[in-house]
UniProtKB/TrEMBL annotation:
Pfam family, one: ACP_syn_III_C
Organism for this UniProt entry: Paracoccus homiensis
Alphabetical list of SUPFAM superfamilies matching this protein: Thiolase-like
Entry's Gene Ontology molecular function annotations: 3-oxoacyl-[acyl-carrier-protein] synthase activity
One BP term from GO: secondary metabolite biosynthetic process
Xref: InterPro entries: ACP_syn_III_C, ACP_syn_III_N, Thiolase-like
Protein name, per record: 3-oxoacyl-[acyl-carrier-protein] synthase-3
Amino acid sequence: MDQTGAFLPVRIAGIAHHLPGSPIASDQLDRAHGLPAGTLQGQTGVATRHYATDEDQIDMAAVVAERALTAAGLSAADIGLVISACGIGYQALPSTAPLIARRLGLADGSFAAFDVNTTCISFMTAFDLAAHLLGAGRARHALIVSSEVATRGLPWDSDPAVAALFGDGAAAAVLSADDSGDHGICAAAMEAYPSGWEACQIEAGGTRHDLRDHPGNIRDLASFRMDGKRLFALTLRHFPAFITRLLNRAGWNPDDIDLVVPHQASPHALRHLARRTILPPDRIADHAGQIGNMIAASVPTVLSKSIAEGRIGPGSRVLMLGTSAGVGFGGLAVRI
């Protein structure tokens, strides 16, 4: 599915991110799991990540939402649409967005709220969807929140190299309708490759298993599993051409891009992105070594950090990219 037509006006009115607690070094995890020093950083490339030990998913969501609203110069009462864009929600039912909105103090009946889950590319999916709803006049301001406790259910016993990739955190963005013509989505694309559906999964939490039939196996069913080699092979085969198609739809050359904001899958994955695609390596934002893989919070966190650091600003051309479990590809070419 792609959006190839007219420029879709939308503006990032405010954005914020939050990393809980202090950085957790890979050496600390080596010691905790009885591994030789340097093992996990060598396997993953991740030096540090953050764990939400004193905050839950809704706590972090509220923190970033309030900061994003402040940055936008708005109050919660100005928001007409709340989207929770997370790979893993707070619980299976109900959705997470209304709980975030309640924490922010939004009044009953004054807004719409729902969840979007395309795992690691959920923020981009929500951004695209919100822009269409704002453009249709369904709201004037939308709040997108990606808050992830990625460290729940990690396979430390069976696959510590996978477990050590992940970190917790949150980011939020306030999107506003824009009439200036200076800000918006130049092109958007999503593609699905379900041949890789089993390569990245948590089996429990849906209707697939009746947990009453598996009383002694709940921990295994609720643990994350990933076949990294299979995912890498599929991505390597198809993702470079996906990027080229997205740039063509936007009418951009690689040198037109001010910054590439990719999903922070791993430092190794980002190095491959730089080597195997037409993207300028010096314009790829790489924070994976310091924050790990934060699922859907990765892209908005790096976008927020890049704006805060002055690397991009109003008018910059930003290419957001990612891959997701399922397997899916997503991308947005945005003039922020």
